Structures are given as structure tokens and as C-alpha cells.
Amino acid sequence: MSGAQDLERFRDEVRSWLEENLTGEFADARGLGGPGREHEGHDLRVRWERHLGKAGWTCLGWPVAYGGRGASLAEQVIFHEEYARADAPARVGHIGEGLIGPTILDHGTEEQKRRFLPPIQRGEELWCQGYSEPDAGSDLANVQTRAYLDGDEWVVTGQKVWTSLAHVADWCFVLARTEPGSRRHHGLSYLLVPMRGPGVEVRPIVQMTGTSEFNEVFFDGARTAAANVVGEPGQGWRVAMATLGYERGASTLGQQIGFRRELARVIETAERTGAARDPVLRDELVRSWVELEIMRLNALRTMRSLGAGEPGPEVSIAKLYWSEWHRRLGELAMAVQGAEGLVADPEPGDLQRLYLFSRADTIYAGSSEIQRNIIAERTLGLPKEPR
User: What is the pLDDT of residue 54?
Assistant: First the structure.
């Protein structure tokens, strides 16, 4: 059988499984979740995540030895495409599968792989990312959260902010300063910290959408095992940058599931309101579709580079591209609604929430300004910005 035939057989397998399983209890999960809508059906989506894991449909690209399928790039793309077509719910385990999982695979010890990867694959443990702080957002090297070794444990004290899904997470990967007197990107360590233990307080941040996907996290003497440091102590910057590469690279294929669903809603609304007959708005709708296809192709190219080694600064292109695109989509969502988009009764609708949430896209996970500097300095070799 040819490679093309193998891929079509795999596509049929994915499509059939989704059709057979998005029924009964999980029929209500269709279309739930996404940016600004992470509150929707959370418990149901957790059960769906575990159902996926039990059937072997999570972490497809991971090695078989660690619970994956060792799936090829083409097979992973097919799965994402069929998942989107089936209107399956937004994944609750994407931070574990797309960010910390690949980081542990590339930089973790064998003990860490055996401890942390299986629960991610099974959908049993959810993760959040402890990077940003009040004075260390886009300037991540200014991290002030501190940790020190006390016997066989790390003791962590500090504050993180804009921590997505911290209120439902079991674990957090935390960038902390572990060498007293160190500055900037020196002396940082990449720690894995439990969120359910003493010394951890989570305060949800109410957003413009009325929901609270983002959170403040306060560590006050929180403890984690000495072995829960990924990479060498004091060398956490390199590991943290690798994680950002995964966030801005391969994992965006899963993110684009939600983007396609949102664009489809915008187009349907434009047809209902008559906005699609406006030549300017129609041109913007077509442009959005074309740019989403470009986003997909760029993500595939980035995945190929990931296979050749650690992600480089060129992955900043992906973050800059999708965040600017998504923000424009939010604006277009408001335009096609016309006057009805100006009223939230009793709370914002899906497209209004898309607009409100997407205002943050060009700020979190590295602002557009920072991404342009990275591309200019590290990829194009242009002179550094004056400081």
C-alpha cells in the first residue's frame, strides 16, 4: 500500500472514531471551549480528554515508549483537520501535551519522563505556565520569583500573573531565580511545582469577557521535590526558551482548530446579517481565510524545523502572525454583526467574547513588539534596539 493510501486509511480511522464517540454524553461537548470560552463545559471536556487518552488519541507525536503513537507530521495534521471538522471540543490538556510534555521529552530526566508524561497522555493531570510576573511580562528575564533548596525540596516564593487555567491546573512549570545575586537570564531554574499543596494561592482575574481564564498565582513557601528541576539548576533560561518554541510552533496546529471554528461563525453571521454582500467586508472575510491557510502552512514548516533540533527564534514569526490575525478576526466579528454586536444581553455572545478576548492576543506570551525585536535581531541579524 502506498504512503498516500496509508494516510487516507488513517484519516478514515480518525473520522470514524470521532463520529462514533462524539455521541451520547459527549454529543453535548461539540463546539465547547476556546479563547475566552474556556469556562464552557470544563468537567465534560476533562472527561472527553481522558476518553481521548484511553483510546490513544492524545500526544500522537510522542514516542510510543512514553504513551504516544510516534505519529508522523502528516498523521498529526490529519488528526487536527478531522478533529476540527467534527466540531470536537477545545482540548483542556493542550498546555501539558503541547508545552511541558515536549520540554520534558527533550530536557527532562528519565525519572521525570516516567512520572509526568503518562498522566498528561491519559488526561489525568492538567498544567499551567508560571512565567509572567507583574514586572516580568514580555521582559521575562526580569523574573523575581525565588527558590532555594531546603534539604530534598525546593522552596518557592513569589508572584506570577496572567497564568492561563491556573485555577484548574494540578501542576505548574515555574521559572524562578535560584542563584542569589544573579541578574537577567542567569541563575534561573525551571521547576515543576504542584498547585494543590500548601503555599499556593490562585486568584482568578475577571476579564472583559466576564470570564476568568487568567489568574494571579502567589507562591508563599510552596515546596516541590529537589528532583523536579528540568535541566541543570541555574540553566532554566535555555529550557524556558525551548518551551516558548513549542508554544509558538507545533502546538499552534491544535490552536488553529478553534480559529477555524471561529472564522466559520463569523462567515455564517455575515451571511445572516447581509454583511457578506458588502464588498469591503467580503474582501476581509476572504483575506482572513487565506491568512489562516498561510498560518497552517507556516506551522507545518515550523514543525519540520522542530524535528531537526531545538526551536530557534524564527518561531516568533508564528506568534506574531497568529496573534495579529486573531485580533483582526475579533474586529471583523464585530463588523459583520452590525448594531446587534453592540449589545450584550445578558452577557457577551460568542463573537463579542471573541473580540474582547482577542485584544490580549498581541500582549500575552510575548508582545508583538518583543516578537518583532527577536525576529529582527536574532533571525535577520539587524542591530539591537537602543536601550
Answer: 95
Predicted pLDDT of residue 189: 93
Q: Give the position of cell 536601550.
A: 387
Q: Which residue type, as a one-letter code, is found at position 153?
A: E
Catalytic residue among 81, 82, 247, 262: 247
Question: What are the structural domains, with CATH classification, of the chain?
Answer: 3-92 (1.10.540.10), 127-235 (2.40.110.10), 249-379 (1.20.140.10)
CA–CA distance from 236 to each of 87, 172, 177, 229, 247 (Å)? Answer: 38, 15, 9, 9, 17
Cell numbers 508524561 correspond to what residue? 117
Burial class from Cβ neighbours inside 10 Å (0-12, 13-18, 19+) for residue 188 reads buried
Question: How confident is the model at residue 85, as a pLDDT?
Answer: 85
Q: 234-248 pLDDT, tens per residue?
A: 889 899 888 877 765
Lowest mean pLDDT segment, chosen from 83-97, 104-118, 202-216? 202-216
Question: Is position 247 annotated as part of the catalytic site?
Answer: yes
